[in-house]
Structure formats: structure tokens, C-alpha cells
Amino acid sequence: MTHSARRIGRSLALVLPVVLVLSGTLAVTMVPWADSTPSQILTASAENVNVPAKPLAPQDALREKLLGELQQGKEPGVVLTHLQQEVDRRPSLADHCVGIARAIGRAAVDAYGPTKAQSFARPVCDTSYAAGVASFS
């Protein structure tokens, strides 16, 4: 009889922890306050975790702002005036003025076509806007 009891004890010692772990895991996932969506279940391993974006460099932030103004319907001449004001206010942006003005010129061609976009040209950043219009036409 001791041999049978020992065999039953060993079987329970191997099977019981597995059963307890599985039933505990299922019990936690089945409670009413647990959301059954995969994003809640796999939070630690989810690939689309919201990572804070790196702050934009000042010139990139200015480019995005000015191109946004253009997309909102402001005329390129107004946007170029804002560019000139920002460069005057922050001289460190002067090195990037040419690239920003060309980007505004390309966006203006998309919005207005090459002929009308050229009519908004201003002497901002050594006529880089006009170069942007011409290269994209």
C-alpha cells in the first residue's frame, strides 16, 4: 500500500502545479474587469507601443509649420513673409532658409501650378523660392 500511495503522491506532485498555474491564468483573464482585446493581454510585448517622438530641430519645426500654413490655404507670399520674419527673429535659421524656401516653392506648385506659384515669388533667402518653383515645374 505504501508503494501505491507513493506513486499517487508523485503523480499529484507533477500534475498539480501545472493545473494550478493554468487555472490561475485562465481565472485572471476571465474576470469581468479584464479587457479581452489583444492590446490589453499583450501589453508588455506589443509592437505598436507609443514611443514619444523626438523633438524636431528648429528648422524642421519651422518647415512643417510653414508648409502647414500653405496647406491651410494661406498664399505663398504670406508664408514667405513669415519665413523672413522667423529668420530675422532667429538668425540661426538663416543656414536653413534656402531649403525651407525651396520646399515652400515645391508645395506652391502643387497647390497653384507653376505659373501662379511663380507670381508669389519674394526675395526671401536669395530667391530660393523661385528656384524651388522652377525645379519642380
> pLDDT under 50 segments (min length 5)?
39-43
What is the rounded Rg? 32 Å
Q: How much helical structure, as a percent, in the residues?
A: 55-70%
- The average pLDDT is 79
The DSSP helix count reads 7
In total, how many beta strands?
A: 0
Category from helices, strands and their pairing: mainly alpha
Q: Distance between termini?
A: 96 Å
In terms of DSSP E residues, the strand content is under 5%
Sheet bearing the most strands, described?
none
The coarse silhouette is rod-shaped
Report the order of strands and helices: HHHHHHH
Note down, in words, how this protein is organized:
With 137 residues, this protein is mainly α. 66% of the residues lie in helices and 0% in strands. The protein has seven helices and no strands. The chain has helices at 2-29, 38-41, 58-71, 76-89, 97-112, 114-118, 128-136. Helix 3 (58-71) runs antiparallel to helix 4 (76-89), helix 3 (58-71) runs parallel beside helix 5 and helix 4 packs antiparallel against helix 5 (97-112). The longest helix has 28 residues, at 2-29. The radius of gyration is 32 Å and the shape is rod-shaped.
